[in-house]
Amino acid sequence: MRPLVDGRATHFSFASPYRPRDPGYAREYATYDRVDTVHLHAWQHDRPAPASILLAHGWCVGNRRLHEIEFSISTLYRDLGLDVYLYVQPFHSLRKPTTARFSGELFPSTDLVRTNEAFIQTVQDVRAAITAILRHRPAPLGMMGSSLGGYTSALVASIDPRLSFVVPIMAPASFAHLFWDHGEGDSFRRQAEALGMTRERFHSSWALHSPSRTSPRCRGSAGSSSPPAATPSSPRPTPTCCGTTGSARAASASPAATSCSSAAATTSASSPASSPTSASSPGRAEPPQAARGREAWRVLGSERRGAR
């Protein structure tokens, strides 16, 4: 803890409430050190602040001093009078496994199962942090992030109604559009297509955590007691589960498919989750290209790991 003018800077850590959904990934996750501990940097006032803000950093970073400059935390804390919190993403900075070469190497990545599972972990971690922040000081709370952190902020805002506002900065609207629709000519996309991956299945695989497919649930104002109702033009989707497509660790070896909102909400630190939903029928025969598509991303993931 460091003393600040009218407050203190603190580094909090706690065990992640996340548990892997996919049995195959659970075995892999158990080999990673440091990822299961949540780190939260805090700049808190001694006297009640009018509001709090939770920050999420981008890909390959996570160093506190860097983000003090990036987000101008001194301005947020001193000039605006906010309590400020910085969340460290899984597989980044203090949560980087010792087997990874650099912060963020393993998330996000071409390994769709690990990436989707890590987004579930991110949401569960952030919701646990939201619970702790509001318990400490029940003032309006918002979230802001840049790049991957902006995507994370939008994702959490599409799930958790306790946020009063959200500020995504330079956030990708869709990883599927970014990697596939704007990846023409990329060697990984050519290999994936040659092995049977299609645009439809690729988008379905990434739909689990896409905030652009859902309506924001943040309150929008401190005086609002409930999230805005969904409009007929923007129905909530039923995306596929982390292991349904795009990997050798597929739905056939996974628990029942669930949406990110219900999977990520399954934590004691947040409200009860809604009933799981699925975008496909378990009894439906899988087309040959589905297995080939999963094999494509298994090969791509193993080739990228072999190129380290």
Structure commentary:
By secondary structure, the protein is of the alpha/beta class. It has a single domain (2-306), classed as Rossmann fold (3-Layer(aba) Sandwich). It is 33% helix and 14% strand. It has 10 helices and 7 strands. It has a 7-stranded mixed β-sheet with strand order 1-2-3-5-4-6-7, with helices on both faces. Helix 6 (175-181) packs antiparallel against helix 8 and helix 7 (187-194) runs antiparallel to helix 10. The longest helix has 25 residues, at 112-136. The chain is globular. The two termini are 38 Å apart. Residues 221-308 have low confidence and may be disordered.
Which helices and strands appear, and what pairs or packs with what?
Elements: E1 2-4, E2 7-15, H1 23-29, E3 37-45, E4 52-56, H2 64-70, H3 73-79, E5 83-87, H4 112-136, E6 141-146, H5 148-157, E7 165-169, H6 175-181, H7 187-194, H8 199-206, H9 260-264, H10 288-306
Parallel strand pairs: 4-5, 4-6, 6-7
Antiparallel strand pairs: 1-2, 2-3, 3-5
Helix pairs in contact: 6-8, 7-10
Number of helices: 10
Number of domains: 1
CATH class: Alpha Beta
**Low-pLDDT sequence parts:** 221-308
Percentage beta strand: 5-15%
Q: Considering DSSP H and I runs of 4 or more, what fraction of the residues is helical?
A: 25-40%
User: Separation of termini?
Assistant: 38 Å
Largest sheet: 7 strands, mixed
In the CATH scheme, what's the topology name? Rossmann fold
